[in-house]
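Inputs:
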Amino acid sequence: MTKKKSLVLSFFSLGFVCLLASCSSVKQYQKNRLNDAEMELSARKAQKFEQSFQLYREGASGANGGKSGGGCGCN
Amino acid sequence: MRKIYLGVLALYLGILSSHAQTTTTTPPAVADSSNYQTRKLKVDEINFVSAFYHQNGNNSAVTGGIGTEKLSDFANTLDVQLSKYNKAGRKNTFLFELGVDHYTSASSDKIDPYSVSSASSQDTRVYPSLNWTQSNDKTGNAFGFTGSYSHEFDYQSFGAGFNLTRVSADKNTQFDFKANVFLDTWKVILPVELRPPGYGSGSHRDDNRPVDSKPRNSFSTAFSLSQVISTRLQGLFIVEPSYQKGLLATDYQRVYFNGDFATGAGPNGDVYNERIESLPGSRYKLPIGVRFNYFLDDHFIIRTFYRYYMDNWGIRANTAEVEVPVKLTSFVSLSPFYRYTDQHGTRYFAPYGQHSVTEKYYTSDYDLSTFHSNFVGLNVRLAPPNGVFGWQHLNMLEFRLGHYVRSTGLNSNIATVNLKFK
């Protein structure tokens, strides 16, 4: 692994660990805002085909809930 | 003092009246039904997603990095989610999805430019899948399996997957793991002028001569960790390494070289300074992404996404996306969104006529080149409690428009509608 890759991975890991450490314990009854439909931590179903065309038109893909294989997409 | 007496009397009468509605006799014993779950198979939700996509550009890979990229795609999926509790109280969820896409492509039509309209000018892709997941409602833990299939006239794919979910005791942390395998077979269709003698076109409508088939297999895993950070903020971290092996080049895509030499002869005796695209037979990909959603107030939510991508072909990319749902009412929201991608292209890419014949791998596919892109649009969401347009079963309607511009000149528009029935 190159130095740059290691740096990027370290940055992501460190950032997320810091966030976890700063988390406060949220009770179930305090989650009314987090349970809002717009707060879902996944891409919308309506984004499905956007992600497909972005997968075909860009070399980069993955980590966004889009497909990572199966079917050609070579048109 | 009188006020105090009257106050105590009023309080006493109030307590009495609150008991007036209750019966003093012991009610007959009945089974506790609070945890009862029906064991019948029931429909949880049905989603129908339909999209129309249209693109235009002038860097088609089929014609070596020049020529029209005009393409239209009409894509539809219908998914049905059913669930049933077993005797042990575990929930079994079945998600069946059927997708049908139909596309017309001006560049694919150039595989055989001598025909009026070749078989590749349009195609229909059909892709069913079925997922079964068993979950524990109390703990939130779950596991499941998926089987999938995809068929196009020159491409077939069989897929299998496994998914696992673990939730912390306080339900604030969730770990998800997914593993997928796709075993694909690709009919090798070549540009008409580069076909060896006796090699078919791939179309069984008017040509029964044989064509080769080659495998393309994909193996992917996804590790994600989602965390509630505060009563307004939650985040997700995801790593999705994958590996592909087999025919990864698209053999009907041409590459034109900078030298003056001949590799084949066309039907009219023309000499071509060209070959079919050549790319390595394996590819490792490593995307790393984070999402943060923040509930600003009762009217604004901020949804963000960032991804860093790298692979062993030399592609590096940064993608950032922000969407701000604006709640007009509790049931209607407008969400403008913006996505930016900056991609450093593969080392195997060069434009039309710029590759050297000494290179082992070469492509003029601009999807793999260096570029930046902007994608902007609007999402409209309606989810009234009495159903959309007063139809109780139509739980949610989403309409989404997007416009995409790439620095290579490619631009596209997409319109999507999502209907959710419950």
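Chain A has a mean pLDDT of 77. Flag for discussion at group meeting.
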